[in-house]
Design brief:
By secondary structure, the protein is of the alpha/beta class. The chain has 2 domains: 157 residues, D-Maltodextrin-Binding Protein, domain 2 (3-Layer(aba) Sandwich); 99 residues, Osmoprotection protein (prox), domain 2 (D-Maltodextrin-Binding Protein, domain 2, 3-Layer(aba) Sandwich), CATH 3.40.190.120. Helices cover 50% and strands 17% of the residues. The protein has a 5-stranded mixed β-sheet with strand order 2-1-3-10-4. It has a 5-stranded mixed β-sheet with strand order 7-6-8-5-9. GO terms for molecular function: transmembrane transporter activity. This is Osmoprotectant transport system substrate-binding protein.
């Protein structure tokens, strides 16, 4: 009887060991910055990874620099990042307007720092020049070239709202004016805190303004982004940025999130941001509904 008990104990112990070896949990920490778009993208990644048997820890509401430092230290292992931020802010490189070139450049640079980029999407949260839809239609302006032509033909008429940073940096207003061959007069440029520029434009206090391409207020206030037809603004395409050791341990992450990155674009992201910012839906609800409606989750 004693022998049987010992044998049973040994068998159970072996089964537990086999179970532990075969069912080792896959764990990853996802990070996000402190604005709506980042919350949504991170939540989508979390839901899709959990749907594929990952245990996900979330670290969000971080500034760009803090998130990058967390990725480098290993506190965060995976995040959605922007190509322009990676090149310009983190590595001090010159801006690149072409999305594919920017992605390839930051992939090469960050590879030496143990960071792998993957799954570039068509979300481009770049700087943009905005107008009211009705005003653009009335004046026949749909691109920055159109705006430049109108300003040159009607000096002193158009006004512009900007924050201090965009108004003075080389890849901001001075660069736009130089590239497109026009110039606002000093009396036509209204400098204000970022965020007020959307309200100033909507309230007809100015006739044009700077912004970010996926901001939900563009739709809310019936504004539109002028086409950057000379491709001046640097690419800020959203893509996965992860620690290389995690990428090598879990190469399936790229495949799991590939359908999402292929489906998302700037217009779609603006709509998702709108649901959270303007319609007060929860990030979890918006993310999960989008994934379910597009068939990205298992039944």
């Amino acid at each position: 009887m004693k022998k049987k008990m010992i044998g049973l104990t040994a068998a159970l112990g072996g089964a537990v060991m086999l179970s532990a070896c075969g069912g080792e949990e896959k764990e990853v920490t996802v990070g996000a910055k402190n604005f709506t778009e980042q919350f949504i993208l991170a939540k989508m990644a979390e839901i899709m990874l959990e749907d594929n048997d990952f245990q996900v820890d979330m670290v969000d509401n971080m500034g760009s620099t803090a998130l990058r430092q967390a990725l480098e230290s290993g506190e965060v292992e995976l995040t959605w990042e922007y190509t322009g931020t990676g090149l310009i802010t983190y590595n001090g490189e010159d801006p690149i307007a072409d999305g594919e070139e920017a992605f390839e450049a930051i992939s090469d640079i960050d590879a030496d720092q143990g960071i792998t980029w993957a799954n570039m999407s068509d979300i481009d949260n770049a700087y943009t020049i905005m107008m009211r839809e009705a005003d653009g239609e009335e004046k026949g302006i749909s691109s920055i070239s159109d705006l430049a032509e109108y300003i040159n033909d009607n000096p002193g008429e158009m006004t512009f709202a900007t924050d201090a940073e965009f108004g003075n940096r080389g890849d901001g207003l001075p660069g736009v004016e130089e590239t497109y061959g026009f110039e606002f007069g000093s009396d036509q440029v209204n400098e204000m805190s970022y965020g007020l520029n959307y309200e100033a434009l909507a309230n007809e206090e100015v006739s044009s303004a700077m912004g970010h391409a996926t901001d939900s207020r563009i739709e809310e206030y019936d504004l539109f982004n002028l086409e950057d037809d000379q491709q001046f603004f640097p690419s800020y395409h959203a893509a996965l940025s992860m620690r290389t050791e995690v990428y090598e341990e879990y190469p399936e992450i790229e495949e799991i999130l590939q359908p999402l990155s292929e489906e998302l674009d700037t217009e779609t992201m603006m709509g998702l941001n709108y649901q959270v910012d303007i319609e007060d839906e929860s990030v979890d609800e918006v993310a999960r509904t989008y994934l379910e409606e597009n068939g990205f989750l298992s039944e």
